[in-house]
Every structure is written in structure tokens, then in C-alpha cells.
Amino acid sequence: MPQKQDYYETLGLRRGATEDEIRKAYRRLARKFHPDLNPGDKAAEERFKHLSEAHEVLGDAKKKAVYDQHGFYSENMQGGPPGSHPGPGQPHMDFSGFDFTDMFGAPKDEQAGQPNSRFGDLFGQFFGRAQQRRSEPQRGSDLEYALNVDFWRAVKGTQARLTIQRHETCGACRGSGAAGSNNIVCPQCNGSGNVTQQAGAMKFNLTCPKCEGSGRLRNVCTACHGEGRTTAGDQVEVKLPAGVKPGDRLRVAHKGNAGTLGGPPGDLYITVNVEPHPFFEREGEDLHIKVPVTVWEAALGTKLEVPTVEGKALLKIPQGTQNEQKFRLRDKGIYNQRKDKRGDLIVEIAVQAPLARDERSREILRELAQLHPEDPRSDMWSKI
Ligand SMILES: [Zn+2]
Ligand SMILES: [Zn+2]
After folding, report:
1. Pairing state of beta strands 202-207 and 194-199?
2. Between 120 and 53, the higher pLDDT residue
3. Of 3.40.50.10260, 3.30.450.40, 3.90.1570.30, 2.60.260.20, which CATH number belongs to 143-169+228-274?
4. pLDDT tens by residue, 327-380
5. Around ion ligand 2, which residues have CB less than 5 A away?
6. How far apart are the first and last CA of the chain?
């Protein structure tokens, strides 16, 4: 069986590409996938084989004409010498001398409008359809965007406006890709979707290459070149719920790419990135903050004003509070709208030693030291 390969597609070209375009496309791709440049890469090797095969046919005016007409090419079709060798993987079919129209009934011309004749079916099985039909509506693809959100806006919830590039349904043709409301009958097959080809003495039916078997041709919309959609910048309003976290993914339904031929649009997904705060750190719905206190505040105990999501809160620290000691302020963390739950605020104490640059301060501290001869490291030595 031959490879079901669209040579134009292989070269990344549209049907009807010029000789020059074919040559350039082949050179560019062959350079990229050449086995010498991709040692051991099986996929590249396969790709290179396909490229060579496509170029062998499309790069040759005679073979290209046959391919364009039939949707495939085989050495036997050119009326080469009898018994000429078929290409690798191609069936050797030599029908010269047979008139299939006698065997399979009336010639094609008399059965216009009917499905493929029996020979057409047989042929279709051998070669597969030359081209896939593109007439099915398809859902548009999803889009992914990242959104940076300021710390407080993420905590409190916010509205964000995003400019995205998306495929939109073409306004000129309302997504059909066709100009005007009427399709026209394909002139090549007169609407039957099949064409009769004669090669030597044999006649057979093929799917019409011009209309791909549909029997109709579209007047192509000039605004979208038949795609049914155009690319445009779009403004999307996104509502971020309070408590949105870094890495949260929000779905905005139907704001992805437009579908083709009237297919439904895809969705837009927004991944949230929350900018860090200079003092607050987040852990789920809990907030952490380090609050500096003086030695005497820690030693004597005091009331501290600490910042929270909703203004200031009062925190009482007891006598003899130690460095790195933590205090939990219940329900003073982040409110999560989706969980309807509020986290806590965890305050860590950072005791700061006084610099004591003046003699009077040093005097007081030395006095204090005499009042407290205990060694904070004694415990350490006893355990080593
Ligand atoms: Zn259009
Ligand atoms: Zn046709």
C-alpha cells in the first residue's frame, strides 16, 4: 500500500503552489531534516523520506500534472514501459488492455450524481482518500494566559482586564468561510463529486480533486480567506475571587479561539501569579509576618500593633517573650471566597538587641548582667 501522503501538505504548501515555492519549501525542509544533520533520529529520517518523495513528484512538471489531477501519483499512470518497476511500497497495477467500463457497467458519464461506481470503491480502497475533507465544524482551541496580580488585590479579590490575541469568528462570512450565501456547483465534476479519468485503455472514477468530493465549491470569503475566522486582540474582563492563590487556574468559558465553520469556541484559562509582599508571607489562607520588638518589650511584655488584612490589630505579648516565638491571631488571615473560610495571622517575634552606643546605656546593661549571672549556654554544654 502506498503512503497516504498529501505531497503539498508534506512540503507545508497550499495546493496550486508555484514551481519556485515547491523548490524553496523542499530545500528548506530537506536541510532541516537531512539524516546527516539528525543522526539516529528516526522521525527526521522518515520525514526526510516523505519530503524526497513529495519533491520527486511535485518537482517534476509531468508527474505534478498527474498528481494534481488524480490526487496521487504512481509510475504506472504515466504510461511508462510495460512491466516498469513500481515504486517502493506501491502496488504494481498494470491495467493496460482492459476496459473496465465493460466489466462494471455503464461508463461514468451516465451515472452522474451517484456515489462512486464499483471501480471507484475498489480504487478508493487501494489508495485511500487523497485528501481529508475539511467541511466538518470544529471546536476552537483553548487559550492559556498568565496574569500577574498584586498581593493585596489577590487577597481582597479584584477585577482584571486582559488583552488577548484570539481567533474570532469572521464577521464578513459569519464563520462559514464562504462569500455570499450560495455555494456554486463544482465545474470539474458538475456536482457529482467524482471525476472519470482515462489512463491508456482504462477508465476509472476518482473523488473530484477540486471540490474534494462535495460537488460544491465555495466562493471564498476575502476577509478570512475561507478560514471562517480572523485573529484579533480582545479585551477580557476577569473577576478574581478574594483569596486567589499563585498557580490558581481560572476558566473563562467561550473566550478561547473561535471554532471553524461555526463550531463552538474554546475556553480561556488564566493562571494566576501573585506578586510577593515585602512583609507578609502566605501559606494557604494563613499569613505570616515577622514583628521586631526591643529587648525590654520582650522582657517586660507589651501590647503590639500588628498589621493585618483589615487594618491594625492589637497583640499582647507576655513577660519573657523569646525571639522567634510565634503568636496566632485567629481569623485575621486571608478570606477565601470559594471555601468561605478565613485563615489566621501568625506573628513571629524578632527580638532586637540595643546598640547601646553611649556609656550610660552600657552601664545599665552591665548592672543588669550582674543581676542575672545565669549562663544561657550551660544547658548546651551539659548535653554535648
Ligand atoms: Zn470570512
Ligand atoms: Zn468537483
Report:
1. antiparallel
2. 53
3. 2.60.260.20
4. 999 999 999 888 899 999 999 999 999 999 999 999 999 999 999 998 888 888
5. 186, 188-189, 208, 210-211
6. 81
